[in-house]
Amino acid sequence: MKRDGTAQDLAAFESTEGTKAMNNTAISKSVVSARGLAKRYELGKENYVDALRGASVDVRAGEMVAIMGPSGCGKSTMLHMLGCLDDPDVGEVWLNGRRIDKLSAGATTALLRAEIGFIFQGFNLISSMTAVENVALAAQYAGKSRREAQKAAREALDRVGLTDRADHRPTELSGGQQQRVAIARAMANDPAIILADEPTGNLDLTTGGEIIELLKRLSQERGVTVISATHDFKMLSASDRVVWIRDGRIDRIEDREQLSISVGQIVPRP
Question: Does the pLDDT at position 97 exceed 60?
Answer without folding.
Answer: yes
